Amino acid sequence: MADSFFANKPAPPAAELLGWELISEDPQAGTIEIAFHPDARMLNPQGNVQGGFVAAMLDDTMGPALVSMSGGTLMPSTIDLNVSFLRPVHPGRVIGRGRVVKAGRAVVFLGGELFDDGGNLLARATSSGVPVAIG
What we know:
alpha+beta, 6 strands, about 20% helix, about 40% strand
C-alpha cells in the first residue's frame, strides 16, 4: 500500500493508542479494513474493552473510508454516531471494516463493523458527518 494516503502520513495520537493498522483499502468502492490492538489500558472492571474505546475503533474505521475514497482530501467531522455492542471485545487484534454508504456535499453517511480474529461480529456502527478538507 505504498501509494496509500495513509502510508505517507503519521498516525494521529488517538489512532496510535488504538493500535491502528491499515490492512486494505478500495478507494473506488469507499471501503477500508483496519486492524486495532486494544490492550490492558482500555479494559473495564469486567476485563473487556470499555465501550468508548470500541466506539472509537469504529469511528476510526469509518472516517478513514472517506479519507481513502477522497484520495486524502476529505475527512468527516462526525455529527452522529450510533453503536450496537453485540459481543464483548477482548484485548488483542480486532478487525474493523468501514465503508462510505453515501457521500453528499453536505453530509456523508458511513457504516462499519468490528470483528475478532475468528470472524465473530463484535459491534457495528453507523455515522454521519460533515465532509471537511484535510489541511
